[in-house]
Amino acid sequence: MKVLLFGIAKDIVGSSQLQFSEVVPKTVLELKQLISKTYPKFGELSSLAVAVNSEYAKDDVPLNRNDEIAIIPPVSGG
Amino acid sequence: MKVLLFGIAKDIVGSSQLQFSEVVPKTVLELKQLISKTYPKFGELSSLAVAVNSEYAKDDVPLNRNDEIAIIPPVSGG
Amino acid sequence: MVDKKIIEIVDVIDTSKVFAKLSDSQSGGICVFVGAVREFTKNEKVMSLEFEAYEQMALREMDKIAINAIEKWQLNSLIIQHAVGFKKVEDPVVVVGASSAHRDACFEACRYLIDTLKETVPIWKKEVFENKTVWVSAHP
Amino acid sequence: MVDKKIIEIVDVIDTSKVFAKLSDSQSGGICVFVGAVREFTKNEKVMSLEFEAYEQMALREMDKIAINAIEKWQLNSLIIQHAVGFKKVEDPVVVVGASSAHRDACFEACRYLIDTLKETVPIWKKEVFENKTVWVSAHP
After folding, report:
1. Label partner for A24 (CA 20 to 30 A): which of C67, C82, D67, D138?
2. What is the distance between the alpha carbons of residues D85 and D95, in angstroms, rounded to a whole number?
3. Closest CA to A50 of D3, A34, B23, D21
4. Residue A51 and residue D54: Cβ atoms within 8 Å?
């Protein structure tokens, strides 16, 4: 499972995407928990959202291997 | 005494200025009364203001021969 | 504060330069309103509009509005331009705009500029329809 | 309704064309907001800003905002443009604008467009100072 990273998320991980092969999160919540455990700096952010197929996804949304999944740190456009 | 006319005031009088030589209004109020008497159509307007030296002038403002006096019908810029 | 102020009555408004004129290093926000000629007024087709200004007084009134707005909202740059003469459908007839550090100020100022201009600046608009002409707002 | 909609993520914003793009025969008012790079943030001198977008999703979110605004305010034309990449002081980074029959609608819509864009569109801004870089709003 591939997860796209942007902004400060990219800086925290040091890469523009994450690859999950062994432990694969099944929901948005599991993904958030997994990355926050692996990279504690995610816990310091003002907010953390996840997008599934280019839409903001709530914690209970299931993740599938073919979904386009992205970590959305606090946005700051404009 | 010369009075500048704009917009509908110009159309009512049929000229871009009025000249008072015999009966000369001494205040803004007198000017308003005089033109409304001579041209009753001024009485039909939504409002009628007078400017003296490019400033809106209240009814009690005195008029002098050398002032630049103008009739200001309802404005509609923008 | 940069305090750049443009107050003009012109024959033709050029909207392409407005943002360049209001841009400065201290402003994070620029808000501009353009008023233009609409094709229909109360379902009647407008052929053209004619604007007439008491120019000297109009510039003074525009300047008063500008000074008030710059002070109230701490604006960096400001523009008020009004066109005179015959204007056809889609032509811009008025431009008001302001730049400020943050966006609240320029939005509020821009709204104040156009609202107050319409109330106090001695400029008159005649609507030319197919069979008649009407001085706007002249009658109740 | 004319219903012309421009939604774009671009490398460089050209503010000179904005009013021409939003002009149409049904609109008496056009309101546009431009966000630009300010020289100072909390008294610190900004060298440049870097904008990054999750482009596909950002365009979708911008489109949602546009559709909501067009419906709510009966807009005729609408533009939302955001720049990406490095921007220097005074460069425009975002343009939102709307045209409508009367001015209330375009002012309110324009404000909604920029406020909502800043809340929901996945675009990120990094401030580059002389000695550090900061992802804006990332931390409480």
Report:
1. D138
2. 15
3. A34
4. yes
User: Considering only CB atoms, which chain D residues are within 8 Å of A73?
Assistant: 124, 135, 138
**Per residue of chain C (140 residues), what is the pLDDT tens digit?**
567 999 999 999 999 999 999 999 999 999 999 999 999 988 899 999 999 999 999 999 999 999 999 999 999 999 999 999 999 999 999 999 999 999 999 999 999 999 999 999 999 999 999 999 999 999 99
Chain C residues closer than 8 Å to D29 by CB: 33-36
Residue type at B71 in one-letter notation: I
Say yes or no: B21 contacts chain C, CB-CB below 8 A: no
Question: Does the beta-carbon distance from C25 to D101 stay under 8 Å?
Answer: no
Q: How far is A23 from chain D (nearest CA, A)?
A: 26
The residue type found at A7 is: G
Tell me how many helices (H) and strands (E) chain C has. Answer: 3, 9
| Cα–Cα distance measured from residue B47 to residue A22, given in angstroms and rounded to the nearest whole number | 81
Buried b / exposed e across D6-33, counting CB within 10 Å, b at 16+?
A: bbebeeebebeebbebbbbebbbbbbbb
Taken in order of first residue, the domains within chain A and their CATH numbers are 2-72 (3.10.20.30)
Beta-carbon contacts of residue B28 (< 8 Å; ≥ 6 apart): B50, B52, B57, B58, B59, B60, B61, B63
- Tell me, what's the ipTM? 0.95
Across the interface, do C25 and D103 touch by the CB < 8 Å criterion?
Answer: no
Q: How many domains does chain D have?
A: 1
User: Which chains pack against D, by 3+ Cβ pairs within 8 A?
Assistant: A, C
D125-138 pLDDT per residue, tens? 999 999 999 999 99
Q: Which residues pair with C82 in a beta bridge?
A: C9, C94
Q: Terminal CA-to-CA distance of chain C, rounded, Å? A: 43
The DSSP letter of residue D112 is H
Q: What is the pTM of this model?
A: 0.96
Sign of the four-CA dihedral D71, D73, D77, D78: negative
How many Å apart are CA D98 and CA D106, to the nearest integer? 5
